Amino acid sequence: xxxxxxxxxxxxxxxxxVVVAGDLNTAEGARxxxxxxxxxxxxxxxxxxxxxPPGTSVRSAERLDWVFVRNLTFxxxxxHRLEITDHFPLTVSIATSETAAWNRRGLR
Length: 108
Prior knowledge:
Blueprint: H1 2-11, E1 18-23, H2 33-40, E2 44-45, E3 65-70, E4 73-79, E5 90-95, H3 97-104
Antiparallel strand pairs: 1-3, 2-3, 4-5
């Protein structure tokens, strides 16, 4: 994760919208240094504010899979309890701030 964050700092401006998602192998869940590094880099967890974000793996109660965004608006984050693999699918709606504002006005 340090390499990804370093690459982003070197290649892209701080206002560039970014999504980091996937199995981050965070056996410690939210206590993981990977999560701490993303939060320190101004990313937001799409499940932020939930008192008990759901586990994302069939075999573990901890979150292993994450979606983090920076400079993007998000809503409707979900973990789908479908046992089609060893990880549950995640979905979230993501938009730039401009697109989210248009959608609030009923424009598509």
